[in-house]
From TrEMBL:
It comes from Arcobacter ellisii. InterPro entries: DUF2958 (IPR021341). This is DUF2958 domain-containing protein.
Length: 101
């Protein structure tokens, strides 16, 4: 269904708000492009479009927020390259990700 994130990964991502009580949620997917990185912790299962997670960009040193996979897929970076998924990324607690940045 989603070329950016395969269905086998999508089915493992918790439903939106499912982990809101957790102090240290897990990021299941890492997407990146030209200094931007999105770590997905939750997704709306009905449409597989709206996500919640941690975002790093040239404009902020990291923040939690909502983002649309459809919008992310439409972004083109340097040389017209689109957003990519880090194929080597394994589910990781946000505290570990923040410490590594």
């Amino acid at each position: 269904m989603n070329k950016l994130i395969p269905n086998e990964l999508l089915k493992n991502i918790p439903e939106l708000y499912e982990t809101e009580e957790q102090n240290d949620p897990i990021a299941y997917v890492k997407l990146f492009l030209d200094g931007w990185t999105w770590y997905i912790t939750e997704i709306i299962s009905m449409d597989k479009n709206i996500c919640f997670g941690y975002v790093e960009s040239p404009f902020c040193s990291g923040e939690l927020g909502y983002f649309s996979l459809e919008e992310i897929k439409s972004i083109k970076g340097t040389l017209g390259i689109g957003v990519e998924r880090d194929l080597s990324f394994k589910p990781t607690k946000l505290s570990v990700i923040k410490k590594a940045l």
